[in-house]
């Protein structure tokens, strides 16, 4: 499907009080709105994903999947700060015609949701049947559902939280330290920080997967002490190389900092008051082996949102289970939608 560009109001106001000049959002759509205009599904993506949800969430979105474009009008927008088409640290500053790099302004999750809201209005979608996201995408979905409670009929959030934890911020800072230790990052040039980004990805994987996942997939077949390239070692390097080939260190820093800001209760009287504002029928999914967003965080979400359904997914894949356990997620979605379908 083609990718579209939506120009945001210029300059786009940010929660920090700053403004982002020349801001735009890249997005894609699949399927068609039905006559009642009540079949829209909006997907909020995670840290290093893009607007092509059929590519990065296969098994859940696509022909023959739970969210089939033959039945649903699917929208996925690339977040501000990302290097996949929306305004990012690599985008030219209208005032200088040069990329902003490290001078790119601080974004918050609230800003990312505000950009989605502006696009929703541009698309003329008065209501969204389902708003769904995992991880950073779940944080965006929650923020948006709190800010615009009358827009969404259903909310599905997976492996996410109401406020980013000190544990999560510490992991993000460790990754940023790795990037900042790369001298090329400070050169403010395309490709800067690549080696640091490779190391950052290796750090991130330790929070995305689990002990059992590594034990199952990366344990050596023999115990030769002369081994230098252990499977776990080569796996870390391989994943680092993959990210460097497709992502950007400046965007990674900008978006990890945005994730750190996530706090539904900021200026709203606290998290309980914010969650109480959600009116969408809500499904909260936790992953039993997730060490980055432990299930206690999802239980707290479900307890705070009136009528929310909470279900745990059994998985060895840790936080990445929200991308990999699509069969389980689809089964839980069928259970979630069953009461409405029976009417």
TrEMBL record:
GO terms, biological process: homoserine metabolic process; methionine biosynthetic process
Annotated catalytic residues: 135 (nucleophile), 290, 319
AB hydrolase-1 domain location: 40-308
UniProt cross-references to InterPro entries, sorted A to Z: AB_hydrolase_1, AB_hydrolase_fold, HAT_MetX-like
Residues at which substrate binds: 201, 320
Catalytic activity: L-homoserine + acetyl-CoA = O-acetyl-L-homoserine + CoA
Protein EC: 2.3.1.31
Keyword Cytoplasm among UniProt keywords: yes
NCBIfam families assigned to the protein according to its UniProt record, in alphabetical order: homoserO_Ac_trn
Free-text function comment from the UniProt entry: Transfers an acetyl group from acetyl-CoA to L-homoserine, forming acetyl-L-homoserine.
Quaternary organization: Homodimer.
Name by which UniProt lists this protein: Homoserine O-acetyltransferase
Source species: Hymenobacter nivis
């Amino acid at each position: 499907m083609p990718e579209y560009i939506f120009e945001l109001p210029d300059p786009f106001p940010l929660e920090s009080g700053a403004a982002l000049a020349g801001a735009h959002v890249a997005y894609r759509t699949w399927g068609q709105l039905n006559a009642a205009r009540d079949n829209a599904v909006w997907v909020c993506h995670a840290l290093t994903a893009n607007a092509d949800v059929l590519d990065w969430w296969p098994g859940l979105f696509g022909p023959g999947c739970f969210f089939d474009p033959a039945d649903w009008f699917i929208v996925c927008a690339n977040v501000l700060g990302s290097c996949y088409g929306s305004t990012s640290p690599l985008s030219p500053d209208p005032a200088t015609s040069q990329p902003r790099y490290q001078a790119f302004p601080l974004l918050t999750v609230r800003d990312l949701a505000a950009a989605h809201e502006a696009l929703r209005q541009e698309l003329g979608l008065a209501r969204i049947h389902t708003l769904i996201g995992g991880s950073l995408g779940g944080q965006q979905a929650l923020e948006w559902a709190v800010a615009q409670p009358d827009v969404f009929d259903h909310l599905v959030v997976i492996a996410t939280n109401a406020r980013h934890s000190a544990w999560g911020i510490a992991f993000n800072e460790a990754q940023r330290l790795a990037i900042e230790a790369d001298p090329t990052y400070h050169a403010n040039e395309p490709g800067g920080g690549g080696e640091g980004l490779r190391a950052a990805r290796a750090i991130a994987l330790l929070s995305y997967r689990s002990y059992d996942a590594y034990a199952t997939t990366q344990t050596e077949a023999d115990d030769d002490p002369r081994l230098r390239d252990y499977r776990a070692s080569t796996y870390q390097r391989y994943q680092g190389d993959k990210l460097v080939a497709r992502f950007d260190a400046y965007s990674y820093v900008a978006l990890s900092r945005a994730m750190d800001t996530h706090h539904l209760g900021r200026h709203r009287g606290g998290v309980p008051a914010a969650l109480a504002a959600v009116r969408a029928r809500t499904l909260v999914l936790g992953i039993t082996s997730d060490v980055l967003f432990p299930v206690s965080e999802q239980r707290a979400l479900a307890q705070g949102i009136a009528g929310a359904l909470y279900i745990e997914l059994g998985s060895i894949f840790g936080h990445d289970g929200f991308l990999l356990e699509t069969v389980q997620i689809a089964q839980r979605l069928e259970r979630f939608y069953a009461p409405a379908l029976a009417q």
